[in-house]
Amino acid sequence: MSAFEIVDPTAELAPVRRTLARRPAALRGRVALLDIRKPRGDVLLDRLAARLAERLPGVEVKRFSKPTFAKPAPEDLRKRIAEESDCVIEALAD
Amino acid sequence: MKPSALPRIALRDQHGRDWTPPSGRDALLCFVHDGCPTCDLTLPILERLYRHFGGALDIAAIGQEAAGNAALLKRHRLTLPMLDDSALKLSFAAEIEIVPTVILAAADGTIVRRFEGFDRGDWRDLVAHLVVRTAVAAPEIDWDEFPETRPGCGSRSVEPEIAERLAAEAAGRRMGARRIALGAAQDPFEFMFEQGLTDGLPVIPPTPERVAAMLAGTRRDPLEVVAIVPPNLAPATVEKVAANAVMAGCRPEYLPVVLAALEAACTDSFNAHGIMATTAGATPIMVVNGPIRRRLGMNMGMQALGSGFRPNATIGRALKLALRNIGGARPGEIERSTLGAAGKFTMCVAEWEERSPWEPLHVERGFARGESVVTLFGLEAGSHQMSDHTARTARALGGSLGAFLAAATHPRAYRLGEVLLVISPEHADTFARDKWSKAQIRERILEVSARRARDLLPGPEIGEGMSPAMLGLGASPGAAELDALVMKFRKPENIAMIVAGGEAGKFTAVFGGWFGGPAGSMSVSRRIEEVP
After folding, report:
1. Complex-level ipTM beyond the 0.90 threshold
2. Chain A residues with CB inside 8 Å of B326's CB?
3. What whole-number distance in Å separates Cα of residue A2 and Cα of residue A10?
């Protein structure tokens, strides 16, 4: 029997390795709070925003939310967050 | 359909000369191989015609096997050119199934005559035609020396394994996927497991031969991109889908269903990323309608949602394997269901349209009855079965369904999106006897399952519930607001219904919803390519 061969059934994507963005040593500048719209995620983020205002008055807090938790964040939202903020805090919830 | 022109392929004759018939004039070719008595009967006639008409047109035998060609030349003392087609390229391209096959082609390659086996009448007609065509007088042949007819033998190009190899070579020129060679000691079945390509059950290794055979099930180009598959947003070519269909155990004629299903899955409406990623255990539930159900021999009767039927089992599995292998939705990675269910392996049901008192699902959705359509629902991966052997009226049975559906997802989960009911023939009969439409059933379900807002609030005894905000209640709702009825489903038409199942037994199966609606998943229907 000749060499056994198969047709690659995958997308042939080399595993994409992404390096994580460097974590800031301290919170400063523009901080995005992202609500993915799971129930009570907003409660957590409201508390976080209040604490940030209290403890780090120099930080500019910006609020974002996904249209629905059930779908990936739309491209334009991701772009806007990247342009308008220096770091993101995302709330998963349930 | 056989080709209407002779494929242009260069062959070498016994003198080492390469030529491509027809060589600027008409050509009379006869495909033969050694060991075929009908070829032995035919070759002397061809030699006779070569000596007689050879000045006016190309006449050659096309031999299918090198050693056999030499034997035939010697045995029949042939002087005519014997072209070596031991690679079977011309035999395959000309779709030769029987030897001898005689082809008369005009100088431009157009095939004017073609016949197989031995038929004295065919030969006499051919010779008469050559006389007219070449203006050469008829040769003297005593036709009474020959039998009236003799069947031919199978062409080598259609022998098992050889035919598959030739098809793979031909399709391979149009295939683009990476090939993976296995080591001699590797078990292909184990290899598929090791590479993480299976759903946990064995798959058929997608060899180039098998994928080429699968591709014969569609007219679409192997390199055409069918869909961009979430979650990795990877392009799926027809060839890649065919490889996954091979693995799932599909026959080639199932492929158009898998292709249409993958197209439906990769829409924003269906939201395959969400369906695969959710902790809730949703999966694509496939419903097939139209004539293709019969053509593929799909099961619609007993065990309609169960195991045991190849088209249903393998079509549903092929879609899941494509989402896994092309889209990258692997359990434990992006597929993150807390519990899952058996329907995650495969779930493909065909509607028993002929047994239904109502219009079939695809007709409800605007397709013609004669079209074949696949509809994907993003629902729970396992069905729940309602038993009602007591109801004798449509109203009573609709009431049972309402009571049963009130508990879908959770008895306090309301304003849901889609749900799919698979109604057994006996239950369909109960509705049909009272001439109930689907609209009436939906209305009855909503009526019986409606609950007061106050009964849907979360509480310490039964935890889950709808928050006042979800119910649209103000900060301090009054009695009227709390007594207002809330509907189980946001829209009546979100209660989809099909008929399937065995003739005996009063059951209806319910596929509960996932996060329905435009923000989650909505069912999507796609027409299936008709391949005659």
Report:
1. no
2. 9-11
3. 24
